[in-house]
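Hey L., structure's done. Input below.
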Amino acid sequence: MNPVFRIGITSDLYTDAKGGPERELERMLGGQPGIEYAPMPPQPDNLAQPDTLEQFDGIFALGIHIGAASLRGVERTAVVSRWGVGYDRIDVPALTQAGIALTIAPNAVRRPVAESILALIFALSKNLFLLDRITRAGLWRTGLSRLGYSLGGRVLGSVGCGNIGRELFRLARPLGFSRMIACDPYVRQEDVAALGVELVDMDTVFRDSDYVAVNTFLSEQTQRLIGERHFRLMKPTAFFINTARGPIVQHDALVKALRENWIRGAGIDVFPAEPPRPDEPLYELENVILAPHAVAWTEELMIENTTETCQNLLTIARGELPEAIVNREVLTNPKFQSKLARYRQARMAAGAAPEG
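Output:
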């Protein structure tokens, strides 16, 4: 039995999020009894390799892909802890079969992502990027081709009404929207009534909303969920915001809707492939605000996301169960149970538990 719980940090954390999580990583994991952490070597095509995973008990994961082939012969790894909430790059059933838990950090991302949606709503409604461009061009008000909108009396809609969607509605409630509507097959009306949210079908969200925000996970069920039919339902004055995942939307349909002015504009933080290709068609359009899947990245998110991700790892290291386990089925897997038991024994033998 290895007495040290070894944590591998995916190498993209040190590139894509450089300067954000490092200090909090050291605060949470450095000097912890029985805990070691180290950067994982870069993986070919960003796909985790079995010989690399086998070096670690826990994986601190940003954007790495983990598929069934990644897990062949892997016996040591007990947990993959996602820095964030999306896990579309991870084969969850394969993890479960291998006796590996998948955890996420829902508390850390809830407020920053909800705030970022509102930031895009304000920027689109007030023509902030247009105003910036014409001012820099010396056109002053003569270049103002359209007026902005006020939020009061508008309709805010969401595809999905889970953790982030509810936070969005909570923050938006004092802004004077006439209605707040959402579609979500897993939510009951009584769950969101106190927020002032009305649950409707998906067509109604697109048809009635002045702002449609995407707040759902990417899965087999939501892949390419939103298409041309939905954009044609939208008002020509409406805005579309996606800070969830690019493949939820049929990208060609989004481009067409913006190019042909079916809708007034969009705020897009996520793309079907990231980073996008240099010839990404959205780059040519002026009625869309684009961001590199980072509009929610704040100093606070860097700290809190890292803290929650580390806490999930340290909880497993104590032989205990974090709250935010995605694949709850793994709890009955004898392989996973055996790993937890070993960590508890190691903790008892050491006389103390690593604390976060």
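Residues 34 and 350 are 8 Å apart (CA to CA). The chain has two domains: 5-104+298-350, 110-290.

-- N.
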